[in-house]
Amino acid sequence: MNGQAHVFDTMGTTVSLRFACQLPHTDLLGAVETSFRQFDHRFSLYRHDSELSRVAQGDLRLDQASVELRESYAEAVGWGHRTSYAFTPHRPDGILDLSGIIKAKAMDAAGCLLDAAGETDWLLNVGGDVLSRGSLSDESWRVGIVDPGDRNALLCIVELGGEGRRSLATSGTAERGEHIWRTGPSEAVRYQQVSVLTEDIVTADVLATAILAGGPDECEGALDRFDIEVLTVDDHGQLTATRGLHHSAGIAAQ
Predict the structure, then answer these.
(1) Domain 4-249 fold
(2) Tens digit of each residue's pLDDT (9 = 90 or more) over 27-64
């Protein structure tokens, strides 16, 4: 893939920001980095000094937390309602954990900075989740979805083109193991990886997690309620994809 890239580490992962032409002014790149680090400083549970860690440790009451934290919590609770609690901001032990939404919110904030600066052709990749606008030399941005059975292989290549932003988020168990609290029926098919394609990165990220947790029933419900495309891999390695993705994956549509 051609173009110019700006890469940095934050939020426990690598951020890659690629532009179709030359890199923008360093002030804009610095603003994007600062925005990500602000999200990390406020919301990371791996930082003992973060605001969310103070809430989780009982040192700060939620109703006394910043507006940004309280609004993010309210947004996460709202997603819980919209996904029949397949997505939740609470761990099984009761700890408040906003990691299921914050990376995507940081990506969205970065996208807003780029849009406001007039940047029209860029692709942001944060730990495998992607947000893009425009194209690369008059061709769609192309990104791969990793095979959970072989992390060195790809399931398919997805083209992110069209008007406005495009977002692709993937949630799975191949790298971090069973870190998602399963909410679907115990006898239901279990997914090991779910990818969601849509315009909004928060929607893509939340629903990838919710479908992984809730299984086929949540997938069917999400497809009814949201304008999304979905690719799933179950525990037996079986792939399914909606019509908008099945040509890239080379498998039958749902």
Answers:
(1) T-fold (3.10.520)
(2) 999 999 999 999 999 999 999 999 999 999 999 999 99
